[in-house]
Amino acid sequence: MSTYKLLKIGGRLTAVTFAASLLCSCSQLPDAINPVEWYNNSVDFFVGNETKKEPKD
Question: Where are the alpha helices (DSSP H) in the chain?
Fold first, then answer.
């Protein structure tokens, strides 16, 4: 393999690893600053699929 091919494969692997770590980090954030929750809440707002949680005894 040429050096260029190895650098290209390594660059892609690094990019995929970085993107996966960014996506996983969203689960560690509180809902107030989590962009995934912002999206879910906005979709629920416009579609009207709000689920009402009943209090547990």
Answer: 3-25, 35-47
What does pTM read for this prediction?
0.39
Q: Where are the domains of the chain?
A: 3-46
The 3-state DSSP class for residue 26 equals: helix
Q: Are 18 and 9 in contact (CB under 8 A)?
A: no
pLDDT tens digits for range 36-55: 788 888 887 788 765 666 66
Structure tokens at 52: 């009402």
Residue with the two structure tokens 């260029």: 4
